[in-house]
Amino acid sequence: MACNYIADEAHYHEVLVRSMAVKSILWIGTADLKDLYIKLQGTTQPFLALLAQLVQKGVSVRLIYAKKPGEAFLQDFKRYPSLANGLESMLCPRVHFKLMIFDGKFAYVGSANLTGAGIGMKSEGKRNFEAGIFTDEPTLVSQVQEHFDSVWRGRMCSACKRKEYCTTPIVP
Predict the structure, then answer these.
(1) Is the dihedral of CA 93, 97, 102, 105 positive or negative?
(2) C-alpha closest to that of 16 among 42, 41, 39
(3) Where are the domains of the chain?
(4) Which terminus of the chain is more solvent-facing, meaning fewer CB atoms within 10 Å of its CB: N or C?
(5) Is residue 171 predicted with pLDDT exceeding 60?
(6) What beta strand segments (E) does 9-155 contain?
């Protein structure tokens, strides 16, 4: 069992690259959602291209985000029609966590939003200063997964007082 501290550029290598190997579930929680790019099949592509591939393979991809995605993200979203029906998403304005769960076996918890400057490919000097923990420790992974799922199931909605701002799914 491991629990590794990761910072700055390591987010891309330790977290996003791990997304490529997911077999059954990929759950993502982020406050901010903008376009970000990854190396995929030898070319630079939007992270959404990977999500579309995962959805087409039958992977359960869930995304909770806190505010309307950036315009470039929405334009990229239109390029992948399988996401419109296959990506499960919800907007929750109270979400501020940044986490990812991979096949229920690995989890990332940290500061990086799903943005280029946060976790994606950015050149030196254009990257946020990020920190997080990547773990396969079963108790911790289970707790992260339960926290995500409790928001997904709406456990906190009755006391939220922001429900009128919630929307689902992403509509470009």
Answers:
(1) negative
(2) 39
(3) 3-165
(4) N
(5) no
(6) 25-30, 37-40, 43-46, 60-65, 88-91, 98-102, 106-110, 131-135
Q: DSSP character for 33? A: B
**How distant, in Å, are the alpha carbons of 42, 65, 159 from that of 131?**
27, 19, 30
Instruction: Using alpha carbons, list the distances in angstroms from residue 150 to 17, 120, 156.
Output: 26, 27, 8
Q: What is the pTM of this model?
A: 0.90
The token duo for 54 is 């995962």
- State yes or no: cis peptide before 69, omega within 30 of 0: no
The amino acid occupying position 30 is T
Return the structure tokens found at 124. 């030196």
- 48, two tokens: 């959404």
Nearest residue to 101 (alpha-carbon basis) of 150, 136, 73? 136
> Is residue 56 helix, strand or coil?
helix
Tell me the CATH number for domain 3-165. Answer: 3.30.870.10
User: Could you report how far apart the first and last alpha carbons of the chain are, in Å?
Assistant: 41
The rounded distance, in Å, linking the Cα atoms of 161 and 156 is 10
Which residues does residue 67 pair with via DSSP β-bridges, in sequence order? Answer: none
Query: Quick check: 76 and 48 in contact, CB under 8 A?
Result: yes
